[in-house]
């Protein structure tokens, strides 16, 4: 028998495909082939239809969110890592959905432009090597590439395996001092990390950072807007090996996508990877 929750998730999947598909110009409400109305009238009607569909999908997802979550994040802390250029409203919306799912945001960490600036690779490499030598052998993979290594250090600062409080504080201070990442005071580390992408991040740099981060966390979900899944960072990331270790969600600039991202977080407690959203190869929303 199909459960009520599975039924609602399936409906959300349909609305996500409709809403984002129309916005991207490839949805089922396309006016192709209808020549009766002038081009301007067609475009106007299509825009109104897209807005109504997207609005209905967002309203539906928000109303159904509590049933969808099913307390799977109840009392679970989540850390948010924002990449340079991340949209503030998207971050706030995702945080609100984490709370709606019964979880809590333990802290929001802000990656700085220097971290993802290819011209600053030498600084990132030097800082990573120095901090690694201050930790016990094996805490960070000794022969890891530059951005994988710094990603592991970010993971130890945000999530990570057991580590002395002094070491965690030292890593956070070093990252802040080098203007790589700002940390929210003495926030507790968490097993789940939600990464919100920004703009124009080099694919290789992003892949390396996320690979290192994922090695130190139980679950990592990477979220971005709808366009990112079509011709942006998420599209490229989904073709990299790290896609097996982190879940990706496009459409996070909408309520529908934000609900999907939180469902992916809950899923990542047990299953890693997966591409979700209108452009996701694993479906619009996690059904598990």
UniProtKB/TrEMBL annotation:
Top-level taxon of the source organism: Bacteria
GO biological process: copper ion homeostasis
One GO location term (cellular component): membrane
InterPro entries named among the record's database cross-references: MctB
Pfam family of the protein (one): MctB
Name of the protein in its database record: Copper transport outer membrane protein, MctB
